[in-house]
Amino acid sequence: MKSKAEILQSVIDVWCKDQDIDAVLEHLTEDVVWHYSAITQPPKIGHAGAREFLTDYKAKVRNPQWRIFRMAEAGNALFVEGVDSFDTAGGHHVSVPYMGILEFEGEKISAWRDYFDRGVADRGAAGEPLPDYALPLLDREPVLSAS
Containing domain of residue 100, as a range? Predict the structure, then answer.
């Protein structure tokens, strides 16, 4: 049986290499509840909702890179701290520090909640860099990243 970290690594690989939506969906339960931006928008439900989100996201980002710096497990949950970096369709580079929680049923992700500052993401997409005090959050050795 794969570990939670191995499953997440598989998701990172298929998304960051090819942005392969179908390959990501293979790692999610049919009834997954995905809160991409847990506080600012309603969750996407099931494969149809996850596909809708990933299709929209794929149209906006280029060269996605997910780096996970810390992980902890509790029961069926994997807690992660990391940074998502990508280029926008408009040519801006964006890096967003975040925390996430993934819940598992067997070897599939059944719930996914990401917590991040939506303003940082939106300002980055508009071309604003992260403030200097946030830069150390980006420059750490990841325990998981695209391989």
Answer: 4-145
